[in-house]
Each structure stands twice: as C-alpha cells, then as structure tokens.
Amino acid sequence: MRWLDADEERAWRALRRMMIAIQSRTAHDLAAIGLSEADYEVLSTLSERPGRTSTLREQAAKMGWSRSRLSRHATRMETRGLVRREPDPDDGRGCYLVLTEHGMETLEDAAPAHLESVRRHVIDRLSPADLSALESIARKLEEPA
C-alpha cells in the first residue's frame, strides 16, 4: 500500500473540503427555491435534450445513479408535475423521462438563482487562470482511472 505523503494528503483533504463546501452551499441555495440538486440536474439536462426527453437509463448514467434510485426520484418529480414518463418502445422495462411545461417553467424560474449561487460560491472567487486550471484538473479527474 502506498500511503499519501504530507503534500498529497494536504491536497486530497483540500479537494474534499472544497467539494463538500461547494456542494453544500449550492444545495442550500437550491433548497431555498424549492429544488434539490438532483431535481435541478434532471430538469437542466432534460431541457438540453432533443424533445426534452431522455431514457431513464441515460439519465441515471449521466447522474451516476442506479436506474432504481432515479426511478424513485422521478416518481417524486412526477408528483410535482415536473416530469412525466412515457414507455420506451425499444426497452420494455424502460421508459423515457419527459420535461413537462411546468418543469421547464420551474427550471427557468430557478436558473437565475442557481447561476447566482454558482457565481457567488465559485466563479467570482477565482481568477481566469484559476478557472483554467480548475477546468484542466477536472478534465483529468473525470475520466476513470
């Protein structure tokens, strides 16, 4: 086993603290407008898809969730009128998630507050060089090892 040296451990702990801080702050700001991070992720990604539609499988993969976890979450979103399900003719067990008009309106109402949150907690606190370095690091780490 290769233990972390002092520099590696400091960097790792700093990364963890940063991820937790940003996630908790932006989640708090979304909660103040009645949405969870998962709600916003589903709404925003569906809004960018052709026909505002995605298979449950594709959406779950994008979010790093199991299909059953996303299905339970989608049920709660359906109850609120944000999405609806339609059968997937290519997958008898699957379905499409479709962004409803109410879901799109909810996203449009939430987007300015969410963008302000992202600016306040991340973007406006970093220089252009910091943002470039952050993007470069993120690209390296998003790929599986």
UniProtKB/TrEMBL annotation:
GO molecular function: DNA-binding transcription factor activity
Membrane-spanning residues: none
Matches recorded under Gene3D superfamilies: Winged helix-like DNA-binding domain superfamily/Winged helix DNA-binding domain (1.10.10.10)
One Pfam family hit: MarR_2
Annotated GO biological process: response to stress
Domain (HTH marR-type): residue spans on this chain: 8-143
InterPro entries: HTH_MarR-typ, MarR/SlyA-like, WH-like_DNA-bd_sf, WH_DNA-bd_sf
Protein name stated in the entry: MarR family transcriptional regulator
Organism this protein belongs to: Planobispora rosea
